[in-house]
Design a protein that fits this description.
The chain has 3 helices and no strands. The chain is mainly alpha-helical and about 90 residues long. The longest helix is centred in the last third of the chain and has 26 residues.
Length: about 90
C-alpha cells in the first residue's frame, strides 16, 4: 500500500471535520452547548504566554494545530446550525 499524499490526508481531514460538525449540530441544544463550551476551552493553546503561540516553542506545532482544528470544527458546526435554521 502506498503512502497517502498530503492532498488525500487533507481531504480525509475535511470529511471528518464536516461529519463532526453535522453531528454536533444535530445534538440536543443542552448537549451541543456543553460540547461547544468544551471545544471553546481548547481553541487557544495554553502555554503561559500573553499571546499564546507567538513565541514558537519546541513541540508547539501539534498543540497549535489542535487548537486551530477545534476552532474550525466549532465554526463549521455553527455554520451548519445556521443553514438548518434557514
Amino acid at each position: 500500500m502506498t503512502e497517502p499524499t498530503p492532498s488525500a490526508i487533507e481531504g480525509r481531514m475535511l470529511a471528518h471535520r464536516r461529519i463532526l460538525s453535522r453531528l454536533i449540530a444535530s445534538l440536543p441544544e443542552q448537549d451541543r452547548t456543553q460540547l461547544l463550551d468544551w471545544i471553546s476551552n481548547r481553541e487557544v493553546m495554553r502555554d503561559g504566554q500573553e499571546d499564546p503561540g507567538a513565541v514558537p516553542a519546541e513541540g508547539s506545532a501539534l498543540e497549535l494545530a489542535m487548537a486551530d482544528e477545534f476552532s474550525r470544527v466549532a465554526i463549521l458546526a455553527g455554520d451548519t446550525l445556521s443553514d438548518q435554521d434557514r
